Amino acid sequence: MSRVHSLTLTVAGVALLAPSTPPAAAPQPRAEPAARRADSVAPPGPTVRGADAVTVAGSPGRRADSGSGAGTAARRTGSVSAAELLARVRDCTPVSNGRYRKDHGMRATVPVCGTNEAVFWKADMDIDCDGRPGRRCNTRTDPYFSASTAFPQSDGRPLSSEELPYVVVPAPSTVWNYRAHGVRGGSVAAVIHRDRVRYAVVGDVGPADIIGEASYAAAEELGINPDPHGGGTPADVTYVVFKNSRVTPIEDRRSAVTTGERLARQFVDSAD
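That's the Secreted protein sequence above. Prediction below.
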């Protein structure tokens, strides 16, 4: 499956939750080749379209969560399972003003959904290999490779797709503006595929009409083929981004995990 080139954002840093403040200069997505995703090859096996269906429901009336974790987090311990998170995002209250395509040329079927604590969507996963070039992500392995990312790491260099698990959000548009929902570079995300949950950061900005993309490292952790040319998966990936969260420095992978585990537990418990 070809991926649409996106502005790379990578994540992970010393766990530091801070109030959401819009970046001084909003990153702008690069122009992408129109056929970028259209010529991608899905991995072997049948495409299961029903697995990423979203049930649109009325507002669930979830209570607001302060993000401190003092109350609900103390009631349960241990890692949050994929089943727990998927149950929490089973119903969708749309926060987008329309829907996104999963790939170029496909119908727009994916809404961005929201609760008081998070935004989420259910889509495919295309591989974003942009950023600092390495052995697996470079101009030889990826015909659409770009050595830049929308959000740099703390030393000013681009993020490394090979090293940092990150997810890609669509460029702001009339359909949805991630900045208006407490999301920014470094926001913490839980990514679920089958029975696996892995934590990442928001690290790149992609095309304004397509959703469903993550870094080489994120795919690898989820057991998805991370090859930028023909890798990814056509369905069954859920992205949950926690509002008003942030890891600094963005490249601190361990902090993204510890912060993500805490926020995921709060998110699951808030449904009680």
